[in-house]
Amino acid sequence: MSAPAVPAAYNFAYLDEQTKRMIRRAILKAVAIPGYQVPFASREMPMPYGWGTGGVQVTAAIIGADDVLKVIDQGADDTTNAVSIRAFFAKTAGVATTTRTADATIIQTRHRIPETALKAGQILVFQVPIPEPLRFLEPRETETRTMHALEEYGLMHVKLYEDIARHGHIATTYAYPVKVEGRYVMDPSPIPKFDNPKLGDSPALQLFGAGREKRIYAIPPHTRVESLDFEDHPFEVQRFAEPCGLCGATGAYLDEVILDDRGNRLFVCSDTDFCEERRRAGHCGAKAAAMEPTS
Amino acid sequence: MSEDDTPLLRAEAVTRLYGARIGCRDVSFALWPGEVLAIVGESGSGKTTLLNCLAGRLPLTAGIVRYRMRDGESRDLARLGEAERRFLMRTDWGFVHQNPADGLRMTVSAGANVGERLMAVGERHYGRIRGTAESWLRRVEVPADRIDDDPRSFSGGMRQRLQIARNLVTAPRLVFMDEPTGGLDVSVQARLLDLIRALVADLGMAALVVTHDLAVARLLSHRMMVMKEGAVVEEGLTDRVLDDPRHPYTQLLVSSILQV
């Protein structure tokens, strides 16, 4: 995509410079206190809440003219949310965009961490709907902030206890709570718990923006991140019985695609860029031939 | 001072005003380990205000409440940091509310309700937490097969017993009870009183029980204080106060019990 010139009516990357400074200050504080939710004066963005207004503001505050932006939604580069946010920054900042994880300097994401390992210098920006991990256990914001301040996290284990009591195992599969650098308990946003191990000791900087809830938090590079668990019910990620139907990858997070109403289904990588790279490199899944476009 | 000659809790001229109105005034007493003290009086006499002041749930207007911590040092509760105070509340103290819904988490199972304090002090072994919860449910006579049910499905009496188990699981040295039998019918009350009496005796903990029901005071407490208009008008051994009341108001209170 060739980057058009930035329309004169907009400041670079849409937000005005004072707003970007305010957001950068919040980001700096968040990086200084890993896992701590920093309040910030979230702005109205030209998109509805729940579509990534927090992530877009963080991206707008950190993006520069020579950055390369990738946007993913549930692992895919080609869904509405990803396409429109990518187009938004191509238009308002005139930056280069890409779908390749390895080429991007900033990756804004919703619900996934890319399968391709991130490198130092890359920044992952998460869109967060509800930043408070204790929210559904304790509705009062004043109380949850006190609990964070005093490190009173017993309640988080009450939730995991309930899971085991009801289902025999910890049934939380996404937004699985983590403890950052041994201090703050954090909601990693609704990524599958499959991605939780990638949060820890990552060479990339990870920023989290919640627009409606007006919070920013961060995991700096090479930070210890532990998923909460019980001694006799340790944290586990889900496994998939079969490899990706298109690229044959094992150990990647798969989406289930229903093919017809006779029970046929296909498991494919949720990370579309990862899957395409593998197929370009010659890997082939069991169902790849059947899935080729006929035109 | 050695452990034996320091009271567990000492109130010195505890006063709480609501603007010009008096909540409680000039209340002084000492509570010793293993002792059950009842605070009785009619509605509006300041019993609950006093209890909340003592438990650090309400700031005092004047006066001091000292508590002897587990390390043997008596500390002014108003000078404890918030972290220390909250830690005390969920380990060394219990608070039994009149309405169990105020003291329970109604949306999580009975087992999690009992286990919450254990998890709050760092227990991270599911099997042990569940085992402890089971044994506590048995002790308070809640059927073990209800461990995964949430308290919304429990009767009033069961909820109150569950609330007691939830408070006692960390073996507190002091339990505050605000009308623990209020709102229960008499046969359930009798069972609950039996249970509380047995637990207090078994665990050797001290208790402060607020009640308007003199029968509860008679059954549970060693000593009692009678309150009227925010002040203590009479205090003494429970049997002495009830059998030989000296203050005119206490005489009125004792004589107004319906004899059947």
TrEMBL record, chain A:
Reactions listed under catalytic activity: alpha-D-ribose 1-methylphosphonate 5-phosphate + AH2 + S-adenosyl-L-methionine = alpha-D-ribose 1,2-cyclic phosphate 5-phosphate + methane + 5'-deoxyadenosine + L-methionine + A + H(+)
InterPro entries the UniProt entry points to: PhnJ
GO biological process terms, semicolon-separated: organic phosphonate catabolic process
Keywords: 4Fe-4S, Iron, Iron-sulfur, Lyase, Metal-binding, S-adenosyl-L-methionine
One matching Pfam family: PhnJ
EC number assigned by the record: 4.7.1.1
Molecular function, one GO term: 4 iron, 4 sulfur cluster binding
Enzyme class name: lyase
Domain of life (superkingdom): Bacteria
Function noted in UniProt: Catalyzes the breakage of the C-P bond in alpha-D-ribose 1-methylphosphonate 5-phosphate (PRPn) forming alpha-D-ribose.
Family: Belongs to the PhnJ family.
Name assigned to this protein: Alpha-D-ribose 1-methylphosphonate 5-phosphate C-P lyase
Organism: Propylenella binzhouense
From TrEMBL, chain B:
Main localization (coarse): membrane
Domain ABC transporter per the UniProt entry, residue ranges: 9-254
Membrane topology: Peripheral membrane protein
Coiled coil: none
GO molecular function: ATP binding; ATP hydrolysis activity; lyase activity
Keyword Nucleotide-binding: yes
Gene3D superfamilies: P-loop containing nucleotide triphosphate hydrolases
Any single GO BP term: organic phosphonate catabolic process
SMART domains: AAA (SM00382)
One Gene Ontology cellular component annotation held by this UniProt entry: plasma membrane
Keyword Ribonucleoprotein part of the UniProt annotation: no
Subcellular location(s) per record: Cell inner membrane
Entry keywords, A to Z: ATP-binding, Lyase, Nucleotide-binding, Transport
Family membership: Belongs to the ABC transporter superfamily.
This protein's name: Phosphonate C-P lyase system protein PhnK
Gene of this entry: phnK
